[in-house]
UniProtKB/TrEMBL annotation:
Organism: uncultured Gemmatimonadota bacterium
Protein name, UniProt field: Peptidase S8/S53 domain-containing protein
UniProt KW keywords: Hydrolase, Protease, Serine protease
A single GO BP: proteolysis
Gene3D superfamilies: Peptidase S8/S53 domain
Length: 493
């Protein structure tokens, strides 16, 4: 892609920046002598080819690419897109001249840094007897009292009425992976349908943790996001406790999400039977620099819509006005048919993280906004500042921590263990803040609504928006959209 600009996606909150779907928190401690000699290598040049026919690829395309010295890595006839490698610029130019081809764009790794996050042991030991039940109501989670976020969206009345989700409804998490071994995630992740599109992570995982499923999360972000959607509610609640999770790894511990991998991940999730897709990732570019990128995104998201899949996306954490962005395309709130989610957040956790939780519906200062973009708002976390600009208090979104979470040391090119991976049996927790977490809450609600309305994205979007608690101006507020989601009301309670 020519002159693509991928600015920071997550908020610059506490000295850490995240460029894609991240959080910003207190620094994570690392185990000093546990390192992996695995560093990211430059990816071979790949081009994304967009055909004029949105639902077909010419039969002789592979032969044409081979004649130019390249090969077809993947073909998606349902959206009229293919990924090819081995072409130089001359070969790409030759493809652009083909009558069946609309665009040829160079694939890009969208940089991100999930940022430092805080990890530590739980405050109390949890007896095995208390965590033996799976799929239970969220308010029975041992640390539910910390979850201002679930309280803010009025989830408990839905749980008490029996709306716990269904294993027949699948939510695909396009992210850094999911740890399927945690007490809150075990049995919820469909490993047969989960897939990684990140070769570098696959290699690192095989070296560090031989035998683990490729979807295992080396970063931790995807696990936190997934557990807001669906959790066994042993430690922390998710919006649902029985919905099936499908991990689709498109983002790497090395600090990027492949654009082509992300688009391939959406198509894969649709074809693999996902009912809901959550995309707590993003970035952007100037539309004039990459018309083909817009076409690719629009085609892929239209494919999800017509296949009956509801897509929920994070608004991003740059405090950007998406109505006045000078031709900047925000991934993926600018796409058709998506639910774009801004962030709200309490500004304090209270005594021992158990409340009170003031200003739980306040707009998070980092969230992107815009009347044309934001559908609804949901909890992502927030903070208050002292007069000197230092942090006075904050509220984050908790979950269990991935046991394989690593830290990528950019100076040495090595992966280093975090507390979570160095003490895998210690029931570690982690805390995140951002619209990534907001999006996940809405994806959980969408999963509950699929049970009621079936695979009908338009109906599900309408149910989410019409039941939200209006917090801003009437109509579509630039900050809250139609309002902060209300789980119980969306289910008719």
């Amino acid at each position: 892609m020519t002159n693509l600009r991928f600015p920071p996606f997550a908020a610059l909150l506490i000295g850490g920046a995240a460029t894609l779907a991240g959080c910003s928190d207190q620094p994570v401690a690392t185990a000093p002598a546990a390192r992996a000699n695995a560093s990211v290598s430059a990816a071979p040049a790949t081009h994304l080819v967009v055909f004029r026919n949105e639902r077909a690829i010419p039969e002789d395309f592979a032969a044409q690419v081979a004649a130019l010295g390249g090969s077809v890595d993947a073909a998606y006839p349902g959206v009229g897109i293919a990924a090819v490698s081995g072409l130089g610029e001359q070969g790409a130019a030759a493809l652009r001249g083909h009558g069946a081809v609309a665009f040829v764009e160079t694939d890009a790794n969208v940089p991100f840094d999930a940022g430092p996050r805080r990890a530590g042991p739980e405050e109390e030991m949890i007896p095995d007897a208390e965590i033996a039940t799976t799929g239970r109501p969220g308010h029975r989670a041992v640390l539910y009292r910390w979850q201002w976020n679930m309280q803010a969206i009025n989830a408990r009345p839905a749980w008490e009425a029996g709306f716990l989700g269904s294993p027949d409804v699948t939510v695909a998490i396009l992210d850094t992976g999911i740890d399927p071994t945690l007490l809150d995630s075990e049995g919820l992740v469909d490993l047969e349908r989960s897939r990684s599109f990140v070769a570098e992570d696959d290699s690192a995982l095989a070296a560090l943790y031989p035998g683990l499923h490729p979807i295992s999360d080396l970063d931790g972000h995807g696990t936190n996001v997934a557990l807001q959607v669906s959790s066994n509610a042993r430690h922390f609640a998710g919006v649902t406790s029985r919905s099936t999770l499908m991990g689709v790894k498109v983002c790497s511990v090395y600090g990027y999400c492949g654009f082509g991998a992300t688009m391939a991940g959406v198509v894969y999730a649709v074809d693999a039977g996902a009912d809901v897709i959550n995309m707590s990732l993003g970035g952007g570019f100037l539309k004039r620099d990459c018309a083909g990128c817009v076409a690719i995104i629009n085609r892929v998201l239209r494919y999800a819509e017509r296949s009956g899949v509801t897509v929920v996306v994070a608004a991003g954490n740059e405090a950007m006005d998406l109505d006045r962005n000078g031709g900047y395309y925000n991934m993926f709130c600018g796409a058709p048919h998506v639910v774009c989610v801004s962030a709200t957040g309490a500004t304090s956790m209270g005594f021992r993280n158990s409340g009170p939780f003031p200003d739980a519906d306040s707009l998070a200062p980092y969230t992107n906004f815009g009347r044309s973009a934001i559908s609804v708002a949901a909890p992502g976390g927030s903070y208050k500042l002292n007069p000197d600009g230092s942090i006075r208090s904050m509220a984050r979104v908790f979950s269990a921590c991935s046991r394989t979470a690593m830290h990528y040391n950019r100076q040495t090119g090595e992966l280093e263990q975090t507390i979570c991976s160095s003490l895998p049996d210690a029931n570690m927790l982690t805390e995140y803040m951002g619209t990534s977490q907001s999006s996940a809450h809405v994806a959980g609600l969408a999963a509950l609504l699929v049970e009621r309305h079936g695979r009908n994205p338009a109906r599900i979007r309408q149910a989410i928006e019409s039941s939200a608690d209006q917090l801003g101006s009437s109509g579509n507020d630039p900050y809250y959209g139609r309002g902060r989601i209300n789980v119980a009301r969306a289910l008719g309670l």
